[in-house]
Structures are given as C-alpha cells and as structure tokens.
Amino acid sequence: MKIGAFQIVLAILLAVAAGCIGAFAANEWRDTNQPQTLHDFVHEQLDLTASQSARLNRLETRFAVERKELDLSLGAANARLAAAMEEEHEYGPKVAAAIDDVHARMGDLQKATVQHVFAMRALLNPQQQARFDRHVALSLTGEPGE
C-alpha cells in the first residue's frame, strides 16, 4: 500500500493540531501559581532592579524581532517540504533535503533561544542567577538543577 502526499500532509496537519490541543490542555491544567514562562519567572520572582528590568525589556524586544524572523524562516522551510512531498510523492531526495532544511531552521531557532537565555542570565546578580539556573533546569528536564 503506497501512502500518497495528501495522506502525509494530512497526517502532519493532524499531528500539529493534536500538539496544539495538548499544549492548550496542559496550559489549562497546570499549577497556576507557577509563572507561565521564563520571562514571567524573571520579571515576577527575581526582584529585578529598575536597571535590570530596563535592560531585560530591551533584550526581549530584540529577541522578539529575531524570533519572528526565525519563525518565518521555519514556516517557509515547512512550505518547501510540503511542495517537495507533493512533487515526489515519496521519500525522495527533494523531500530528504527539505527535511534537513526544516531541521536546520529549527536548530537556528533553538540556538537563538539558548543565546537569549544566556543574555538574560548575564543581567542577573549571583543570587538571581542561582534561582534562574534552577528554574531553567527544571523547565528543560522536569528536575531542579543543583
């Protein structure tokens, strides 16, 4: 039985929809006493000085622009993958190259995000950094850092 491009694209769309529903459900069911994002944690839990808060806001503004560009790049890579799948109707060289491109764009986004996290950390004093590090470790692994 040969699986066509339509079925593959439909499966991808269903997987994305399921992921969105899962993320929404997780957001609704989690402990609402916990900050929602790393940025919320930093702003709400670390008692930033006015200077730290201003510098953090500048960092966040710059990263928002960079993230939007990276998200658009990833979206374009996904569109190229869809076109390759439609053209080849199998796991051929164009599909393989398009998948590699999607993975590269995902990697670019992850690298930029980690660089942003370290830029945020650099604004903090040692006590804030220790709490920040624990929060990041917990966010990434589900286990508190040392």
TrEMBL record:
UniProt organism field: Tsuneonella suprasediminis
Gene3D superfamilies recorded: 1.20.120.1490
PROSITE patterns found in the cross-reference section: PROKAR_LIPOPROTEIN
Signal sequence, start to end: 1-25
Entry keyword Signal: yes
Taxon lineage: Bacteria, Pseudomonadati, Pseudomonadota, Alphaproteobacteria, Sphingomonadales
Claim: Nucleotidyltransferase is one of the keywords in the record: no
Alphabetical list of InterPro entries matching this protein: Metal_resist
Keywords: Signal
Protein name: Periplasmic heavy metal sensor
Domain of life: Bacteria
Pfam families in the record: Metal_resist
